[in-house]
Each structure stands twice: as C-alpha cells, then as structure tokens.
C-alpha cells in the first residue's frame, strides 16, 4: 500500500511515517503544507493519503480543501483525515462527498496502533472509518429531528456504529447480537428515516448524514 502523509507538525508527521513503515507499508512521500501534499499525490499516485485537517497558512480547513482537491484529481484515492478535535462539520462534509474510501479520526487514535491500522486498512479497502469518540460526542449533542426521535435506543446504537463505518457483522459483534438482529434494526432505521431503496443514493450514508447533521458544530 502506497501512502502520502500531509501533516505540518514534523514530529507527528515523521512519527506516523515510522509507524506505518514499521507495519510494512510504503510511505512514498510526506508533506508539511497543502501544495506539497497535492504535488506528492500527483507524482506518486498513492492508494491512500493521511491528511491533517488544519494546515498552513491559516490552520483552519486547508487539509480538508486539499483532500477534496486530491480526490477531484484522483477519484480512486482513499483519504484518512486526522483532527485534534471533534469538528462535526468536517466529518459531515467528507461523508457528503461520498463515503467510499474516507475516514475521519482524532489524532490521539494514532497511538492506539491496532485501532489506527484497522481504520487505515478499512478506508484503503473502500470503506468508511469515523472515530468512535467523535460519534460518542456527537451522540450527546444530537438534537431531536425528523425520524431520529422515532428511533429506539438500540437503533440509535446501531446507527452510531454505522457512522463509525462498521459493517453489519462488526456491529453484531460489538453489540453481542445476531446478524439477523442487525439487519432488522437497519431496516427499521431506514423506514423511520423515510429512506426507501434508491439506486442514486446509499441509504447507509444518507442515514449517517441525517444523524450527524442534527449535531451542532464545535466552535473553531
């Protein structure tokens, strides 16, 4: 797996690179700013990029803007975004662009090597990974909205795990229930959120977006 890392903190940038190389992965380039990141992606055509949300010059959303541009240039690129804080607007923006090959993790997750590597591989394999701590914090802020207030506590648990990017089997294992029970809960979630089958949209992504968008954004 070929990886490009974009992180303005040199210690964290090199630390992540060393970690990934120790896991047998090919870090082909690192960059400390958006321009360098985009140039590296164009040159090396990696399978996945690990990108900091806040980068120079303003340290606001340059990383997200660069990630979106990199995906525009190379639609097959997987992107795992790292953030020091829960910034719901960025997580929602990423999913709104399509959930395939996208992840959003808190930087502290890097130190939990097994979880970080699991998320990295899930994103590289075409899935979604949203930090469970992000989901937990958003859950406490969620305002009742159309359909969401009709979900049972167990259905909200299932939707939160869907938001992390877990598949049905992983959700069943986490909740200690059967796969059939998870299928039943997901069907009920779709029904309560008025999400009929539609070839133009992924109902899992739409349900997660509906869930995330009910949470107020963290002040920047």
Automatic annotation (TrEMBL):
Coiled coil: none
Residue numbers carrying 4-aspartylphosphate: 52
Ranges for domain Response regulatory: 2-122
Alphabetical keyword list: DNA-binding, Phosphoprotein, Transcription, Transcription regulation
Superkingdom of origin: Bacteria
Record-annotated HTH luxR-type domain positions: 144-215
Presence of the UniProt keyword DNA-binding in the record: yes
GO MF: DNA binding
GO biological process: phosphorelay signal transduction system; regulation of DNA-templated transcription
PROSITE patterns recorded: HTH_LUXR_2, RESPONSE_REGULATORY
PANTHER family: TRANSCRIPTIONAL REGULATORY PROTEIN NARL-RELATED, TWO-COMPONENT RESPONSE REGULATOR
Descriptive protein name: Response regulator transcription factor
